[in-house]
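ok trying this again, last paste got cut off
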Amino acid sequence: MKDKISVMVQTHIVHATTEPYINNEMLVRTIQSSHDKLGLEDAKYYIYIDKAMEVSYPDLFKDYYDAIKSQISNELSHINVDIVEDRQHLMRGSWWHMIDNCDTPYFLFLEHDWEFVEKIPTIDIIDKMDKYEHFNYLRFPYTYMGPGGPSHWDSHDGGYPISREEEIDLPMTKCIFYSANPHIVSTERCKEFYKPIHQQYWSDRTKGTRELEKELADIIKSDVSEIGGEETHKKWGSFIYGVWGDSNHIPPVKHLGDWCRKG
């Protein structure tokens, strides 16, 4: 798998009530569960720590960094994990850095507070992404596949037509929005389209938001207004794992961060 897919893991110091959460066990569960449930074997994991945390909390940052190093040695030694030392500001900067430096055709994007609970046929997904040029992004939802889900990003302005994907032989649903929820994405498409169009709108890293999907949503809504929902879907090549309207669908991931106030 190391020649096919890499893994980007974005993290930062969080706060549970008022105390900093230095020993972030969510991070371990995110890495361990994705490795096991996606069958990632020798795929390389790259941990990105938000540089803004280093600037704002230099002492806590050192403790957090040291804790992650300890977790890698003691709990994740069987997985190929490195901390990226060229730290970037915000998720946006880390995402750009991963796109620029990724040397595999695909990468899995993970924030530090997700746990995979269902098996994912990663090899089949990659084979289909190799085959179909318009299949560029696959999001793993944590809610049911019906109205109001799987992500509020798909409900902007009352929602856009979302339907089951019929051409590609995988349980997938067409979507429009690019969410930072766990997803597999084409590195080439990121380099040639997603990153350039994002930088066109958000060239100054001090502008915008802390959430990547909020910034991308503004761009995608502009596309919808100009070319319509179906053409926007084709342009972005975005899909959700699971069949829309399937009441038996089991969400493949669960969110671990609802209890915390992120800092």
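PB: full thing came through this time. Residues 5-262 form a domain with the Spore Coat Polysaccharide Biosynthesis Protein SpsA; Chain A fold (CATH 3.90.550.10).
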